[in-house]
Design brief:
76 residues; mainly alpha; mitochondrion; transmembrane helix; transmembrane; mitochondrion inner membrane
Length: 76
């Protein structure tokens, strides 16, 4: 059985409220779904650069695995 002091402390504890920091808020109330701005209206150039970045990042492990399999004689 809990003492009166312990019960009082448990009942006084409340969950903390969530407060966002000023860094998490957007400038002047504008909503941006990306953490950076596009350089002007060059969305096509950005899409090409993003695709190249993602393709290289996803292909490097596959190329390395294929190389290791070929080196060990496991792939025909």
């Amino acid at each position: 059985m809990l003492s009166a002091a312990t019960r009082t402390l448990i009942l006084r504890q409340r969950p903390r409220a969530f407060h966002s920091s000023a860094v998490a808020r957007s400038d002047h109330g504008h909503y941006h779904h990306l953490p950076f701005n596009f350089p002007g209206e060059k969305k096509g150039v950005f899409a090409i650069k993003l695709f190249a970045f993602m393709a290289s990042g996803f292909s490097i492990p596959l190329i390395a695995a294929g190389y290791q399999l070929k080196k060990s004689g496991g792939a025909s």
